[in-house]
Amino acid sequence: MTDAKKVGAYIVKHKKWGVQLQQLRDLFHKTELKEEVKWGAPSYSLNGKLIAGMAGFKNHCAIWFHQGVFLKDPNKKLINAQEGTTRGLRQWRFEEGDTVEADLVLQYIRESIENNLAGKKIKPQRKKGVVIPPYLKAAFSSNSKFENAFHQLTPGKQREYAGHIGEAKQEATKQSRLEKIIPMIIEGKGLHDKYKNC
Questions:
Q1: Phi, psi torsion values for 79, nearest 5 degrees
Q2: Which of 69, 94, 140, 162 would you call most buried, defined as having the most Cβ atoms within 10 angstroms of its Cβ?
Q3: How far is CA 66 from the centre of its chain?
Q4: pTM of this prediction?
Q5: pLDDT tens digit string along 143-167?
Q6: Does the 3-117 domain belong in CATH 3.90.1150.200?
């Protein structure tokens, strides 16, 4: 199935918001953006970079801008849907009874395209350091091979393992997880490596 057909099927599936989603789609088609499906929803990109997308939810449908933080937003339409988590993404919600202001939406889409062409984007923040939970530290003290292997892993893999042990609430769970990860760490594997190569 082509992306165009997938987007059509997506709109039909979200019949509560079908009219608004089709209006938004028509506006995207007035631009040079390429229509695709990413994460199961219609997305629009330029030269391989995501610019915007749209989706239907239970209580609203929305258009989102991947680098929306750079939009001027004089009409105060945009929100950060995950305050404290999302840095660049901004969302414009449409609830029941709201109309899609075509000229205004198109203005926001075009400004997003201009921002992209100007190279405006949030740079990802790299996490620094690894907090090793006490339970893992205790295991290091009794197994130097395990400790050395752990420190040979990349910081990202170390964080995954530290979180895996640190999140466990009960002693039995911590012990069970520790027994499972020791051979993986000694082999130099990451906690989620088997999923990353799929």
A1: -130, 155
A2: 94
A3: 10
A4: 0.64
A5: 999 999 999 998 889 989 998 998 8
A6: yes
